[in-house]
């Protein structure tokens, strides 16, 4: 504890406590009641002081909770770069707008093309070519068939990608994957430690 910095706060707290006790004593209440009320007020002051002292920590916790709920945990989009922190599952996840709709993607440099599951494609108006021949893909769960498609606008913060080619299949489960064709649309990308940096 830095006494010089905390001194004014301590003096202010002691002064308030003394004034409180003096005020209660002036009302000529029984000593036991004065003690109980004093302890209650001390607890209130201590709680307020703790909240004030740890306000920045509480703000960080709140920001983390909001990020977890919104799916943007570990993601930071600035005017110059997008930085992603590796998540507990070992993957990098990116929240993007697909034709104006929020969608969470896993980034996979081992995938050639961005892959969108059928439910997401239907919900975000992905243009799916149902007339062409299906595409055969090798995935971690074996070979699957998919259809070619296109996302009219894929946006991360201020960065927009138009007519982004994708493959769509019901066999992708609930996962959406940004593949190498997404990474190739960046000016550059790199991984250092547990942080991936994308330069649009």
UniProtKB/TrEMBL annotation:
Per UniProt, what is one Pfam family of this protein?
gag-asp_proteas
Instruction: Give the UniProt record's GO annotations in the biological process aspect.
Output: proteolysis
Q: Which residues cross the membrane?
A: 7-26, 38-56
Look up the EC number in the record and give it: 3.4.23.-
Name the domain of life this protein comes from.
Answer: Bacteria
Query: Recorded GO terms, molecular function?
Result: peptidase activity
Keyword list (alphabetical) reads: Hydrolase, Membrane, Protease, Transmembrane, Transmembrane helix
Record-given protein name: TIGR02281 family clan AA aspartic protease
What are the top taxonomic ranks of the organism?
Answer: Bacteria, Pseudomonadati, Pseudomonadota, Alphaproteobacteria, Sphingomonadales
């Amino acid at each position: 504890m830095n006494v010089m910095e905390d001194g004014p706060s301590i003096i202010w707290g002691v002064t308030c406590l003394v004034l409180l006790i003096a005020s209660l004593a002036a009302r000529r209440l029984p000593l036991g009641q004065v003690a109980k009320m004093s302890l209650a007020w001390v607890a209130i002051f201590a709680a307020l002081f703790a909240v004030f002292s740890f306000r920045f920590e509480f703000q960080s916790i709140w920001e983390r909770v909001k990020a977890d709920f919104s799916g943007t945990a570990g993601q930071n989009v600035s005017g110059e770069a997008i930085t992603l922190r590796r998540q507990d599952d070992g993957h990098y996840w990116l929240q993007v707008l697909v034709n104006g709709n929020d969608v969470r993607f896993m980034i996979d440099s081992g995938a050639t093309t961005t892959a969108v599951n059928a439910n997401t494609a239907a919900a975000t108006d992905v243009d799916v070519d149902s007339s062409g021949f299906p595409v055969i893909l090798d995935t971690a769960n074996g070979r699957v068939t998919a259809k070619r498609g296109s996302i009219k606008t894929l946006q991360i913060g201020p960065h927009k990608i138009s007519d982004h080619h994708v493959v769509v299949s019901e066999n992708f489960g609930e996962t959406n994957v940004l593949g190498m064709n997404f990474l190739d649309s960046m000016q550059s990308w790199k991984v250092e430690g547990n942080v991936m940096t994308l330069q649009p």
